[in-house]
Model the fold of this input.
Amino acid sequence: MQINATAIPLPIDNIDTDQIIPAKFLKQVDKLGYGKNLFYSWRYLANGDANPDFVLNQPERSSAEILIAGNNFGCGSSREHAAWAVADYGIKAIISTQFADIFKGNAYNNGILPIELDKTHVDQLIQKSLDTAGLVIDIDLKSQTISCDVLGMKENFDIHPFKKQCLMQGMDETEFLLNLRSEIQAYETQRSIPI
Done:
């Protein structure tokens, strides 16, 4: 998995899942269609028009696939819909100093790479992205590196090997287990003891 894309800077700490996708939009039972309501309360004015001051509404950010957020992203309720909204919008990676544990797990299971970096590097990426809408960030999951040539930055990031394997193969945990069905059945057959 390699991502070479521009970013959406969102320098706000403690963005909770209700800010990511408000509860009033949680009526669908599938994962599609949530992206249009991502960050709804910030993205739209009271009359429903797009808020021109919000970063997602800037035309130069329309093809961005990386979100750079403040500390503790995805806190609050455990709704998986938050990850659905992020993925449906087209964001493939989120960079922060810390993620809420449940959101982080939901991100992995929805094909989103959550990357934790130290505050200095996150702040540098946010500031440079605010200054330069076309700032390109390179993420290489195989080598677990994130780089930004303009900043002269190349950093390693940690990821659990199993999560990495699932992302590299484009599957969630359930799909991974389903692919092992024949091995699981063979094991169960071997260990079954007649009564």
